Every structure is written in structure tokens, then in C-alpha cells.
Amino acid sequence: MGFFTTAAGDYDRHIGRYGRALARELIAAAEVQPGARVLDVGCGPGALTAALLAHGATVAAIDPSEPFATACAKRHPAADVRVGAAESLPFADSAFDATLAQLVVNFMADAQAGVCEMIRVTRPGGVVAAAVWDYADGMTILRAFWDAAKTIDPDAADESQMRYCTPDALADLWADLADVHVREANVRADYESFEDLWAPLESGVAPSGAFTVNLASEPRAALKRELRTRLAVGDEPFALTARAWVVTGRT
User: Fold this and answer.
1) Strand pairing report for 58-63 and 37-41
2) Which contiguous run of DSSP H or E holds residue 130?
3) E strand or H helix at 59, and its extent?
4) Residues of the chain whose pLDDT is less than 50?
5) Which terminus of the chain, N or C, has less C-beta within 10 A?
6) Residue from 32, 70, 30 nearest 54 by CA
7) DSSP for 177-220?
8) Side-by-side strand order, sheet with 37-41
9) Long-range contacts formed by 61-68: CB under 8 A, 24+ apart
10) Where do the Methyltransferase type domain residues begin and end (predicted)?
């Protein structure tokens, strides 16, 4: 996942804009209580970690990207932040009241192993929960981006083709848990202008950014024009909405 080794600030300006709002939705769905011991799996630069700390939780966090984990630790010194993979969590059995993963399950090398580890480190009766974008329809910026990308390269690797991005797939992945529910969460992000939206893509962050920077200058300019047209935005401030699927279950 080399597209997640860029500077944390680039992620913040791209998908990270939606992170705090989505984190609040995930925390509410998981029914996290103040004072709970919570693990943030795939913490990135720390949007969910920040929301959990503000909620009054005791937080540990882990991410395979060293730049992201370093940024999370610097931003949130109250959290126990480590570098590592979901498939091999360096925590004891039943160490947490809740284990959450925001926008990471579909990027795990082995999601089934990752969820098994999330279950292992969660106490009996605790909550295991995750949020994943609705890439196929409801995540406006990414849906528009990949539709635009296919006008440049019909074989562009649309993120909607990844596994575990639909309610049914998430429910199946959570099959070893009890009281499983999948619901939608709708959030929004504000932009100063189209250039504010476009600039992070030029950093190579996330699959969309990686696709962008791998284009030569002419097709990249064509992608930029097409994306702007599809979003129908210009030089004035605007907002975009995003839908995620949130799955919860109890150990």
C-alpha cells in the first residue's frame, strides 16, 4: 500500500476531510462508552483516534504506514500508537472493550485474518466494528473520480471492485460475531474550490492519487478537466457528501 506512505497532511486534505465526521458515526454505532478501552485498527493519521479521545476513551492505535502512525502519535500523545498490521496485532487477548477499524478493512492484506485478530483482542461481549466507503455509489468524490478516470483509461482499477465494500460482504466478514448489524452513515466535507480538492491527488495519496501521478501530463490534465466537469464545481466553496457502510458485532 505505497499510496499510504505519503505525508499525513496530503491524506488529511484528501479523504481525511471526512474522517472526523465518519469517526463520530462509527463511535455511535459501536456504542462506545466514555472510559472504554478501545483499539483503533488502521488508524492512519488519527481521525478516529482523535474522536475516541474526545469521547473519553482510553485509546491504543496501530497502522502499517510508519509516516501515518508517526503523525498519529505526534498529534495524540495520550494514545498508545504503534506500527503494525491488523493481521498480527501486538496486544493481549481480551485487552479492549471495543475494536474499531475506519476505512481499512478493504485494504487489509487478509481481511478475514484481520477481523479474527480484532475479535481476539476484544473482551467477551465487546464490540468489533468497521466503516467502509460505499465506493459503488454514495462516496461522491471517489465515484466521480473513477468515472472520470475510466474516460482516460477504461481499465482503471475502480475501488468499487475491492472486496468488503457492500453491506452483504461486510455482514459475511462479521459472521463469527453475534448481533451483527450493517447500517449507512452519511457525512460531508467542505472545499474552498476545485483546486483545493485536486491538489492532494497530485501527491499520490490513496489509490486515486496513485492513479493520478502515474499519468503523463496531458492525460492528467484531461482527467482534471473531466473530474471538474463531473462534479460541476468551480472556484467557489462547495461541499460533497459521502456514504459509508458501518458494520458492528459483539464477541
Assistant:
1) parallel
2) strand 122-133
3) strand 58-63
4) 1-2
5) N
6) 32
7) SEEEEEEEEEEEEEESSHHHHHGGGGGT-HHHHHHHHTS-HHHH
8) 80-83, 58-63, 37-41, 96-102, 122-133, 238-250, 178-191
9) 62/86, 62/89, 62/90, 64/1, 64/4, 65/1, 65/4, 65/5, 66/5, 67/5, 67/6, 67/7, 67/8, 68/4, 68/8, 68/11, 68/43, 68/44
10) 39-129
Which residue stretches of 64-155 are H helix? Answer: 66-75, 111-120, 140-152
- Give the residue carrying C-alpha cell 475510466: 150
pLDDT at 234: 87
C-alpha cell at 125: 461481549
CA atoms 244, 201, 109, 90: torsion sign: negative
Q: Which three cell numbers stand for residue 10?
A: 496530503
Q: What is the pTM of this model?
A: 0.94
**Which set of grid coordinates corresponds to residue 57?**
476513551
User: Can you list the domains of the chain with their CATH numbers?
Assistant: 2-136+158-190+242-250 (3.40.50.150)
Q: What is the DSSP letter of 6?
A: S
